[in-house]
Design a protein that fits this description.
By secondary structure, the chain is an alpha+beta fold. The protein is built from 3 helices and 8 strands.
Length: 168
């Protein structure tokens, strides 16, 4: 899938990272003790990339981040991610290549600091959007009006909720 260099895309994906987990468990010889286990940790991310302006924004469990597009090729793209929290100084590089079989992008991410480096594999999907329509609430309202029968039941249920019906 070729990326439109003037396009705006939603990006959704996951990155994987090796982690060491600590926990308390039972050992038959000595009783309770601390255990250390290695495992693979995954984190979901989502955001938007404007390839025309070489800029984007993303969010994951670690916070909001800004993206700077480094490269767009016929089969892939790369960007750098910097968290908006000024206490974090890490810049993380992502490189993706389109996988025809999976219809998604697969790649790697890497972090390099003076005394620390990390990295792992990642996967994402891109969805090109029409900026004029996507961010136009009137276009959405017109669609809802045209399909009002589909939404009528949900609207009726929302209007009929009383304090007794609420789950909290």
């Amino acid at each position: 899938m070729e990326i439109n260099p003037n396009g705006i895309y939603l990006i959704q994906g996951v990155f994987f990272q090796s982690k060491q987990f600590l926990g308390i468990g039972f050992d038959e010889l000595i009783g309770e003790r601390v255990f250390s286990t290695d495992g693979i940790f995954h984190t979901v991310f989502m955001g938007v990339i404007n390839f025309d302006e070489n800029f984007g924004q993303m969010n994951d469990v670690y916070g909001n981040s800004s993206l700077r597009v480094l490269n767009i090729s016929g089969s892939g793209f790369s960007f750098q991610k910097e968290y908006d929290d000024r206490r974090r100084k890490d810049i993380i590089t992502y490189t993706f290549v389109f996988d025809e079989a999976g219809k998604d992008y697969k790649g790697i991410w890497s972090l390099r600091l003076e005394d620390f480096s990390d990295g792992g594999v990642t996967r994402c999907v891109l969805t090109e959007i029409d900026e004029k329509k996507f961010f136009d609430p009137m276009e959405i309202l017109d669609f809802v009006k045209e399909n009002s029968s589909v939404f009528a039941k949900q609207i009726q249920e929302m209007n009929s909720d009383t304090e007794d019906d609420l789950p909290f």
